[in-house]
Amino acid sequence: MIAPELAIPLALAVPLVGCFAIWLLDKQPNLREGATLVTAAILLSLAITVFVSVAGGARPEFTMLEVIDGLPIAFSVEPLGAMFALIASGLWAVNSVYAIGYMRGGNEKHQTRFYMSFAVAISAAIGVAFAANLFTLFIFYEVLTLSTFPLVTHKGNDDARRGGRVYLGVLMATSIGLLLPAIVWTYAITGTSDFVLGGIMMDHKEAVEPIAAILLGLYAFGIGKAALMPAHPWLPNAMVAPTPVSAFLHAVAVVKAGVFSILKVAVYIFGVDFLAETGASIPFMWIAAGSILLASAIAMHKDNLKARLAYSTVSQLSYVTLGAMLATSMGVMGGATQIAAHALGKMTLFMCAGAVYVAHHKTLVSELRGMGRVMPFTFGAFFLGAMSIIGLPPLAGSWPKFFLMLGAADAGQLLIIIVLMISSILNVIYLLSIPVQAFYMSPAEEGVKPQGVNESGRGGEGIKWGSLKEAPLLCVLPPIFTATGAFILFFFADPLYQFLTPLIGGQ
């Protein structure tokens, strides 16, 4: 059994070794993709090792080096980080299986570069998850941005290049222009950038309180990956990427790194008690609430399926920010559990969108009428994923909304409860309508028949049973797996709650 302290550097290094192996096996696709899957399996086992250790009460640590006195590149794993690392590594394994089916089905070019970028990005995500201080988090946050840029621009056409410019421009501008000054300012006031349970600001309350809202705002918008409006345009623009990248961005690494960082800053830098006493988080609570409703309203009017799901993600990410800014124990718990539930639900939806793309070359919601008759497994998984995002039991997404409502009640913010209820109704309209029309409405084209056309316009080998025409098996099984996971997680809410209890000051 590997010691948790050793599992930390190994979890950072294994994907990089895998990246090198993928490069060496460029001309041997089967071995190259085998290297991807083996790397994912090893990383997942390391994440499980760390997770089990943290569940047992340990807080494994590892220091890589001290750049200057008081600013080490160091790692320390607490429950939120252990959960994020497990989600990222587990869903990367699932997404890798899906990506193989998708990339082969679409005869995509530059597949070696694609898998290499994925490997570097997941290493960066693990670095964010395990970071012991703001300095370390910032380094891996930036590596994550740079390593995912080739994924966003993978197709190499004008749309991809334009989307890539927005992606890189917004994320780099917010991190360098806002997040970095916030970290420097925090260090100047407190003399540390370490993550400490309860926060580091309370001991410097007199110095911080007058500028607390400004400093918190720098973090809220500087962490652009959290996609809090108006720092969100990078996310819908990134939808030009292949669907496995969209799933990775929205469920596994980038956006989850953003909202994870928001929670870490709220809990371990400011502290929930400090935010509650000073009221510094209240303006950003309402900005998050506005983002939830506005992004949902925009999603309702998007006919492009991936664009609709992208704006849905902007809305759903704001749930996590909202939970942090409520500055209550239940609000934080709602934000933390939303990271897990949203990852399963949204990844399911994006993988289903990609399966439709590969099998039938459909991109618009208006083209999906009757498609459930030829792709019942795909749209069945989509239905479960949508139910979870909406927050309907027995799917995992129901628990975060329950905790967020409790948190809003504890904070005396009854209007926030109304916002959450309206959001659920909007989710029903723009998400549940898709499987309903796929299964129950007449086809958009007279007699929907299997097209056998993939995203690149070439024929792909899918699953053909009678009148059914599903995507290749490797594109169908992963969303079924994650949809099932969203169902199972509903019944394991208490173990997850107990695991995260130290985050809110419990033992």
Can you describe this structure?
Its main location: membrane. It is a multi-pass membrane protein. Belongs to the CPA3 antiporters (TC 2.A.63) subunit D family. It comes from Hyphococcus flavus. It is found in: Cell membrane; Membrane. With 507 residues, this protein is mostly helical. It has a domain of 227 residues. Helices cover 70% and strands 4% of the residues. It contains 20 helices and four strands. Strands 1-2 form a two-stranded antiparallel sheet. A hairpin with a 2-residue loop joins β3 and β4. α3 runs antiparallel to α10, α14 packs antiparallel against α15 and α15 packs antiparallel against α17. It is globular, with a radius of gyration of 22 Å. The relative contact order is 0.10.
Question: Please, what is the average pLDDT?
Answer: 90
Shape summary: globular
Report the sheet with the most strands, covering strand number, pairing sense and barrel closure.
2 strands, antiparallel
| Number of DSSP helical runs | 20
Gyration radius (Cα, Å) is 22 Å
